[in-house]
Amino acid sequence: MYLEQINGPEDVKKLSGEQLTKLAAEMRQVLLKRASIHGGHFGPNFGMVEVTIALHYVFESPKDKIVYDVSHQTYPHKMLTGRKDAYLYEEHYDDVTGYSSPQESEHDHFTVGHTSTSVSLACGLAKGRDLNGGGGNVIAVIGDGSLSGGEALEGLDFAAELESNLIIVVNDNDMSIAENHGGLYSNLKLLRETKGEAECNLFRAMGLDYVYVDEGNNIDVLIKAFQSVKDSTKPVVVHIKTQKGKGYAPAEKDKESWHYNAPFNIETGEPLGVPQGEDYSDITAKFLLEKMKKDPSVVAITSATPTVLGFTKDKREEAGKQFVDVGIAEETAVALASGIAANGGKPVWGVYSTFVQRTYDQIAQDLCINNNAATIVTFCGTVYGMNDVTHLGLYDIPMMANIPNLVYLAPATKEEYLAMLDWSLEQTDHPVAIRLPGGPVISDGRKVTKDFSDLNQYEITQKGSRVAVVGLGTFYSLGQSVAKELEEKTGTKATVINPYYITGIDQEMLEDLKKDHDIVITLEDGILDGGFGEKITRFYGDSEMKVLNYGLKKEFLDRYDAAEVLKDNRLTKEQITEDVMKLM
Amino acid sequence: MYLEQINGPEDVKKLSGEQLTKLAAEMRQVLLKRASIHGGHFGPNFGMVEVTIALHYVFESPKDKIVYDVSHQTYPHKMLTGRKDAYLYEEHYDDVTGYSSPQESEHDHFTVGHTSTSVSLACGLAKGRDLNGGGGNVIAVIGDGSLSGGEALEGLDFAAELESNLIIVVNDNDMSIAENHGGLYSNLKLLRETKGEAECNLFRAMGLDYVYVDEGNNIDVLIKAFQSVKDSTKPVVVHIKTQKGKGYAPAEKDKESWHYNAPFNIETGEPLGVPQGEDYSDITAKFLLEKMKKDPSVVAITSATPTVLGFTKDKREEAGKQFVDVGIAEETAVALASGIAANGGKPVWGVYSTFVQRTYDQIAQDLCINNNAATIVTFCGTVYGMNDVTHLGLYDIPMMANIPNLVYLAPATKEEYLAMLDWSLEQTDHPVAIRLPGGPVISDGRKVTKDFSDLNQYEITQKGSRVAVVGLGTFYSLGQSVAKELEEKTGTKATVINPYYITGIDQEMLEDLKKDHDIVITLEDGILDGGFGEKITRFYGDSEMKVLNYGLKKEFLDRYDAAEVLKDNRLTKEQITEDVMKLM
């Protein structure tokens, strides 16, 4: 195998055209096998094999610096830059992360996992080079799906100002995770159809030079294109047509499903894992579709991840105009929701915790200052969620819950969630966000009759004394376990509280606890800094009440084991009970 | 005066073409007089007089809904929609805000003060209309300067998806606050030069229909253009060339200075106010320019507000390639800074607290996960800063200080600031942000020798007992006053602490205080929720220490009086001393 001999880009340069083509075929086989066993981002990498080979054939990485957007297409790059073993050998599959990583290799320049950042980051590398009088090419690689994101469009606009070398490789496979959304894709289509000849050209309109490559999976053609722009003295876009999932029939056919995959049977493409039980995405889609049938003003919004809300293709068709995917454009999703709410609609934006981060200003300005009754549902805001450093769901509480006017709710069960979602859709007084709990869906069949309009009313679910346990969202059940453990160990029956509201405290209840409680503990599924528990501690600051806040340390975790992290943060019932007993 | 008879858009429609032209002249006179006495946004409004008249002549506001970007060009709109008195009569000047406001009028649909949001918000209004089967036009008005912002470009891209009525009016005066930056402006120039005929067209490339109006200050022409797009069944851009500051010679000549103005002499254009003393912008520019001369890798970055860093036109020229204005593109500013730092440069991004909000994800992902040593200087993060609801500087602590890896510093004096800035530029271990204090610049001449690399080392500046006062940044001097007041009232000499670090606590010092202190008070210039003080309270949660946190309530204030707000939040030395004495 040629791949076995590739220890770095210098080895790519030794191969002939024919050998490079064989290398591409090998890389696809290796990618396919690894994907079938390990899972990962599939389609984007399969389309980029030849482009990556050609990049490393023509440019001199790491002197020439390649910045990959969102990293979904970095696997071939990793294979050619000293990390082939992590693709060739099953026992080494976990030696690399799924994202570009300077810790892994001098050929990676940033840890990247959110989309639409590569052009602006590459502008920075180029400017740093120019300030110090250095040389070398800077290359940003960006997929067509990422182009709709605000930061990417800002970057394309700014790039022209550099007036020096910057090569922007646009990998156009005519897909985002799902289909692309937005008017610029009609221009990409026009450019593909005219082989780059159309006068109306988004990139030229942004002040950039432009080269089109029609045969984006032909190594020879790609090498010539890259040679033609190498050492360019001004920013230039190389627009390359590739095929997402190329080389694996099921992935070529169903590009959306094969953007990312779990382990699967290579022969059939069928997933190997047993289908999981009910999840919050399915629950949400079912609920919203029923609502939509009764109420034409209900509309579900996603930003390039339609399935976060459970809206698979069939459900999107069922919803019709009542489903909107804005593409990768989270800021616009929030503004859109605010505008819809301002004009009589009932919008629900579904978003992963890690991506809601892209909209602080839109939540504050477009939504909350205007106090429009839009609903945000935050998925995977939990230690049990995605665990790559770029995709953590541990920060949305400090980010969102300190924005005035927002009502941020934390259900502990499916029933609480649906009651909150229903309430939120029907009220017109507040912007509302709902943070879904982590771990398996808990359904207790309880009918939730609480009126969430009475803001910040916590609920005592077990009345005890001396110790009160406030368990937020995911950790409400941990709170129950702590109370049980404590009673078993000490005979003290603790008070257990479901706070529901992340954004405010129940002053009356907290005041009342002073009568017959000495210790309050708070439990939250996220970092402690700026979070929920600290507000309760502040309330008790001038009193005799002892308060212990449990949550995670402020840090960037990466590919962690949730159980270990919880233990490290003393978030097991045994550890908490031990701490409380010491204090009693 | 015709203007005196305009009580709403219906009165505009009654006027003849000649009368409308006279109305425009009157509006300019009224704007000029008010601006000379009251100050406000100048240039954008002067250019938009005719466009606004034509909009209200053709469309049926409020059934047809007009959304103004950033609101800098809403004064003529306010004059024609029932709020003329606030422009005609000095005693009513403060009856209106400087921004669009649904509280003021049914003709305003959002409270807007940050740029680049109008297209996405208008998409929401249009979608809300379509869901409910309603009619009417939705019109977004956006200035060319705002087009470079990510949310605006996302909005333009998304708009095509609506497939229904949306009219995007681009007010092209060839200026942002300062000159425009970015490649798209070369396309706007091409379109102006070809009277909209050029094939390469940013708006068409975004999938939108397009109409060009060359005579953007000619009411007749504007009326015809708007009539041609009224009730359009798909999104269309009306690109209008206007003249910023039109009608006032000094403003036509120096567009940057006349974007916003303080009260001035109409005859000469000279400002009436006495020039203020030294401010942090001047101090920063002076320091950075000296640094730049010695070190070619130092680079100052701003995002359309170059003077926030003190970089007036002459200083920008002096800095040459070592100054970069990215235009309105805050996200790109952060990514650019991160990239420069990753490639050997020393970037400093200067930004107002209210606009740093636009970059949560970029600070977290592009900068802090990558731990690149870029510097952010946050201006006006204080109760003494801008006081419009859309421009508050009270939230940057909860937003930024809970992001891992960031070192967020709070100087109390000019000397501390410059020592921090110098340290930050020369170190390579951390992303650093520095929050400038509010109020007049305090300079104590003290030589600061502290090594800020030893993170989270607070400083005891007065050793006392029983009570410790931790005064952060702006409020360090309030802390000193409280200690003095307390000593006078009770004889107790309090410990006074300058914490310097917003992002971490000095555990050792805080632990040590337990020995001979019963009360700790924290003072911070921002909201308490998610802020600095709560972290200290959490530290003491399980101890006997009483902690009082002082700062602002989480709320959206608007056009407030700082002294009143401080009093309402018990932030005077007398109130704090009273509270402490009660607790002692």
So what's the CATH class of the largest domain in chain A? Alpha Beta
Give the total of beta strands of chain A.
18
Number of helices of chain A: 24
Q: Would you identify the regions of chain A where 5 or more consecutive residues have pLDDT less than 50?
A: none
* CATH structural architecture of the largest domain in chain A: 3-Layer(aba) Sandwich
The CATH H-level superfamily of the largest domain in chain A is Thiamin diphosphate (ThDP)-binding fold, Pyr/PP domains
Based on CA atoms alone, the radius of gyration of chain A comes out at: 26 Å
Q: Say what the CATH topology of the largest domain in chain A is.
A: Rossmann fold
| Shape type of chain A | globular
Strand content of chain A: 15-25%
| End-to-end C-alpha gap of chain A | 67 Å
Question: Biggest sheet of chain A, strands in spatial order?
Answer: 9-8-10-11-13-12
User: Can you tell me the number of structural domains of chain A?
Assistant: 3
Helix content of chain A: 25-40%
Hey, which two chains have the biggest interface? A-B, 120 and 119 residues
What oligomeric state do these chains adopt? Answer: homodimer
If you average the pLDDT of chain A, what whole number results? Answer: 96
The major pleated sheet of chain A works out as: 6 strands, parallel
Structural class of chain A: alpha/beta
